[in-house]
């Protein structure tokens, strides 16, 4: 095998936008533009003044106090929690663990898809099987049931969803866990946007106890620190040891200053912080979709996460068109084609800029 | 394949030592006990006060300024440098990249071996082929030449060496590069202890330009920050893109506070810092080996790195004996058997404690 896996386009588009001559409103990445909690900065200062031994390897699976804090919040045993280098590594470990069970090499993904998932699948020697979601991004468990078989190693879902903004109801999650069990597969539930459940409908896969589900998450979005790289995966007890081994063999351990600051922030940050950020996003959704209405664009109103997918007549969501939009309007989005064929006509805009209104106006003017 | 790779014992022994009732002198890990440079702490404070956008994803391959700083110091193009989550990820990427070339699945390792290498090899689907080193830890290139074949994907070496303390002369490195070229394999040269070249004999594989060598390194040891997780790999131009893809698909990016602090420390720290730490280690080597002489133990005097391997008559280097030594003398080392059969009689002691003299005295008393 010479490498066939593809690199997601995010960094490429961000770079293109960054190199543009014009003033560009960045709606490419999933980078929050709001403040991290004050306690996060405090935690980092505190760490910077610590003893030299604090600067050395944390336990491979992460700082014990951080794992305990997460375990208590999520209602699982500390031993099930592995701190990872962001949700990226958490998903990598979860998918690798599912494939290592040797119960098939197929990974079921939803379409449109977060592009890291197929990339990871191919890198790990698996094959992809896409299940299409509805226009509003909802996933029909019957479609997953029909797609699942002996060959299925894992079903990977993401709710609140990037890019569609769909939040799967409790019943969907329950059925997905059952389908994983029936097919001796693993449900990998990526819940990194759980704090951005804008409509109050989020259900975690942790609500359904099972040896067949792994839950992944991170503090990247919830604490506005995508660059810190602190995430976690919660494994069933019988799957956790080998996942810890892979984590150790790939990364040895995660970054201790980051873990320390996150622990401090978790302990000292109240629910107001998260609620404020949800309010901000709700406002931005309204502002942006109002302007899309004015521009006559089709779009989905997100129930969660950071993104609005929009479709402008005669302007398909290709990389070329995204670059043209950057050059001609100064608005940078992601090409829908990056998320699969089903959204090839669409563009994805991340609401992570204070200039969401201006961006929408620029788009409205351009597509008039 | 259900997982067969083994987890290195380091964390296990560290935990055992940490849980002991007695006062234990920790000579297990490769964790420096000396101060990081003052500029590292400054850098972290500076970062903690940065704008929110500084808290978001760095470029996947690492902060550009850090890659430039490394490229300039190492005399390579910036594009060849990938910042990794420590040397651990750097070696993982390098070995994966060698295997992906599809020129064989065998990885040649030296014996005694740093136990992460065989663990990574097995995890990546490769097979190991061990070449024994001499009593003083030196590697005979003729032995590597005899072991290498069409099946060889990579030759992984580590100089200054963990655990033997050997530093390979320039001629050895030159021949290893040539052997990699002749067999269409990749020399992976792990140079993480390059700043701890105690006898002034270190030669980097970067001194021999080749499309067949990857050099890995980290700031974990040189800046006394094993917990920060900042390392790097330098790839030949034609191998770097796929390595960046794997890095992105596994980790997305590395920790930005860590990278920022390391950049600041590199810029502001003069050669004195490194020289002081070498002096400290040279003193500890002398103190410890003097006491080993007094105890009648066999040992090798390290030319570099942090470790002394010692052999006490009738006390083989098993995990059981290491645990007994912790309980009965309060000195924690690593079992020689963790590094392969050839050093099954030996124990490894890391000189990362200010109590090296006391540790040696305890050992002398115990083995008298």
TrEMBL record, chains A, B:
Belongs to the class-I pyridoxal-phosphate-dependent aminotransferase family. Residues 22-362 form the Aminotransferase class I/classII large domain. The keyword Iron-sulfur does not apply. One of its GO terms (biological process) is amino acid metabolic process. GO terms for molecular function: pyridoxal phosphate binding; transaminase activity. Homodimer. PANTHER family: ASPARTATE AMINOTRANSFERASE. This is Class I and II aminotransferase. It comes from the Archaea. Keywords: Aminotransferase, Pyridoxal phosphate, Transferase. Its cofactor is pyridoxal 5'-phosphate. CDD domains: AAT_like. SUPFAM superfamilies: PLP-dependent transferases. The keyword Signal does not apply. It comes from Natrialba hulunbeirensis JCM 10989. InterPro entries: Aminotransferase_I/II_large, AspAT/PAT-like, PyrdxlP-dep_Trfase, PyrdxlP-dep_Trfase_major.
């Amino acid at each position: 095998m010479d490498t066939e896996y593809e690199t997601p386009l995010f960094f490429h588009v961000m770079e293109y936008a960054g190199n543009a001559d014009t003033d560009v409103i960045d709606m490419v990445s999933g980078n929050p533009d709001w403040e991290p909690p004050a306690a996060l900065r405090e935690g980092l200062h505190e760490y910077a003044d610590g003893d030299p031994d604090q600067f050395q390897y944390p336990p491979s699976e992460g700082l014990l106090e951080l794992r305990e804090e997460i375990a208590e919040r999520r209602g699982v045993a500390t031993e099930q929690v592995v701190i990872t280098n962001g949700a990226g590594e958490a998903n990598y470990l979860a998918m690798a663990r599912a494939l290592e069970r040797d119960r098939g090499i197929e990974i079921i993904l939803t379409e449109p898809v977060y592009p890291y998932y197929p990339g990871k699948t191919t890198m790990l020697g698996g094959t992809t099987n896409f299940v299409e979601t509805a226009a509003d991004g909802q996933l029909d468990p019957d479609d997953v049931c029909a797609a699942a078989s002996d060959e299925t190693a894992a079903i990977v879902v993401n709710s609140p969803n990037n890019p569609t903004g769909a939040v799967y109801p409790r019943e969907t999650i329950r059925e997905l866990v059952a389908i994983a069990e029936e097919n001796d597969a693993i449900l990998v539930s990526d819940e990194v946007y759980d704090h951005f459940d804008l409509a109050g409908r989020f259900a975690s896969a942790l609500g359904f106890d099972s040896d067949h589900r792994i839950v992944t998450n991170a503090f990247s979005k919830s604490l506005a620190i995508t660059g810190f790289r602190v995430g976690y995966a919660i494994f069933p007890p019988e799957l956790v040891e080998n996942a810890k081994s892979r984590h150790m063999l790939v990364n040895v351990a995660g970054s201790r200053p980051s873990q320390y600051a996150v622990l401090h922030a978790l302990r000292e940050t109240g629910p107001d912080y998260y609620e404020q950020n949800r309010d901000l996003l709700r406002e931005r959704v309204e502002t942006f979709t109002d302007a899309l209405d004015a521009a006559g664009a089709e779009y989905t109103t997100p129930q969660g996460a950071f993104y609005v997918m929009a479709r402008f007549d005669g302007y398909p969501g290709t990389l070329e068109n995204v670059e043209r939009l950057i050059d001609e309007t100064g608005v940078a989005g992601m090409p829908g084609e990056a998320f699969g064929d089903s959204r090839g006509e669409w563009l994805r805009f991340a609401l992570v800029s204070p200039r969401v209104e201006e961006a929408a106006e620029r788009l409205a003017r351009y597509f008039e």
